[in-house]
Specification:
CATH architecture: Alpha-Beta Complex
Radius of gyration: 16 Å
Strand content: 15-25%
CATH topology: Sufe protein. Chain: A
Structural class: alpha+beta
Order of helices and strands: HEEEHHHH
Largest sheet: 3 strands, antiparallel
Distance between the termini: 59 Å
Strand order of the largest sheet: 1-2-3
Number of domains: 1
Length: about 150
Amino acid sequence: MTENKPLDPAGALASFYRETILQHTSNPVGFRAPIEATHSSELYNPFCGDRVRLQFALNGDIIEAAAFDGESCGICMASASILCDCSPGGPVSAVKAWHDWLESALKSDGEHGRQGAVPGALEALLGVRRYPTRINCAMLPWQAALKALEI
């Protein structure tokens, strides 16, 4: 006989986040995608060896395409993939807002609510909060994006 246990919302959410990260790591959006880049930047984290280059094709203030390349850990790759998945079709300012939200959320001790429209996949990176040394891995693609977009 099996025991009926109540659904653990925190456990289900953690599982969803892990699954999202794994999905973006195993099938990264924008990885080595050929685009006609108008803006790009590459950053390197000497502490862990992550290297990531973000590329964007802009039409005015709108991101038409995003791609990335590099050698990195799964967290950095998933973060870059989420960025490339969420940013096309939106304004450059959205990338800055998402960067700021993610940085604040990863460095906070408690719950961090949404501030405006934050892509749900971005919340999957909040599991990194438990591993402070890995926060830089999650933030590197976003820092490269800000540098590329000159914001």
